[in-house]
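Question: what's this shape?

___
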Amino acid sequence: MSFDFIIRPYQVQDVPQILNLMKALARFEHYIDGFKVTEEFLCAAHVEGTDDFNILVAVRGEEVIAYSVHYKIKFTYDLLPTYIMKELYVDASNREYGVGKALFLTIKKMALEEKATRLQWLVMPSNEKAKSFYKKLGAMPDQEWEHWELSLTKI
């Protein structure tokens, strides 16, 4: 059985389906109660087209089956971009077909084309499937740096 899909930047008509996938991820990662993304936000972000919010989608026919959100920043010591993959999510019924790998490799290719020196992302400690997936793609947890944060909503 052929499983054909394409990877492309999102379009306004994709927004309702992307929002549903984002909500599915929010439920999985237990932050659905604080989820604030709206169709209006996603449409406005598409029109603005900034480097600080980019979405790629995997589309099969007319269905958005996966998405990734990424942005880039410059590091002060080398002034080269670092790509930050904020989210990568594949609809549960479309996993095991290489969709997540294709999204990841597309972001990696984009980063390399811009001479980025790093591609970074976070993985929930309990998400063993994600850890295994990224290890198969050659990634490893950063052993030199700890991820820290200060919640500005709880001060």
Observations:
- The chain has a mean pLDDT of 92.
